[in-house]
Write a structure and sequence with these properties.
9% strand, single chain, 2 helices, alpha+beta, two-stranded antiparallel sheet, 2 strands
Length: 70
């Protein structure tokens, strides 16, 4: 029997296949990494995977498409 999930259990960050996220206002790399803890991803993993897109790990922008390393 499938568990009943409340709206509160919805994931905050949605990861698509292939694994990527779209940055939203108020996001930062450490926050994203914490929300993806089930994937064992660190903020530096995300930064390294997206080094062509992110020049400064302290500056990410809404609408950026970031790939999540496996």
């Amino acid at each position: 029997e499938a568990p009943i999930l409340s709206k509160a259990t919805k994931p905050i960050v949605q990861v698509s296949k292939p694994r990527f996220i779209i940055v939203k206002s108020g996001d930062w790399l450490m926050k994203i990494a914490r929300q993806l803890s089930e994937y064992s991803v660190t903020w530096s993993d995300i930064f390294m995977e997206n080094s062509e897109i992110i020049r400064n790990p302290n500056r990410i922008y809404p609408g950026q498409k970031l790939f999540i390393p496996e």
